[in-house]
Amino acid sequence: MSVLTADFTDHPVQRTVRFKRNTMGFLSRFVRVSGLVFYSVDHSMNAGDHVFDRIHPEENGRYNGYFHELDPFHPRRFAATGADLATSNDLSQRLDRTDYYAEFFRPMGYRYEAELYLRHAGRIVAGVSLLKSAQDGDFTKDEIQFLQKSHAFVEQSYCMLGELPVAPSLDAVQQHWGLSARERDVVELLAQGASNGDIARS
Q: Are 49 and 40 in contact (CB under 8 A)?
């Protein structure tokens, strides 16, 4: 059985939450971050169904209540660009000169952000926010390259969870991975639903 079509017996919502958690664990093995958020995007371009890693969920109330309107990485701002990855350096205005940064982002302890946008049929259907503190430093060239390489795997795996119509074949996904042998092992275990502990022991 293909690792991307493995049989999951749990509820689709639980499966999606587990996938989001495992994906964030996978990304943080290769990219130094202080926090992550994996969210879904509805047809109105609103983010929801957030799953957090090292971030207090109560902060999401403040975000949804007001600050999402100021978020320079909000999916609606990148919907028409076709971008799969955006960092603080890709914004039209310096992140640290925005009200969003001064009033929300910096008080939470963050300085840099990278955003993976996951698309289906051209529409953003989910995203992953990777957040760094000033002490972490900006995203390195190697980290950006890893995020670019892993994007296709994360995107196609998300689309094959059963929430969305059938995505391209496994062969098509593999052509775009460009991952090292170890990275391929890790993402295959991730797709099977392995825990981060299982992956670390493999």
A: yes
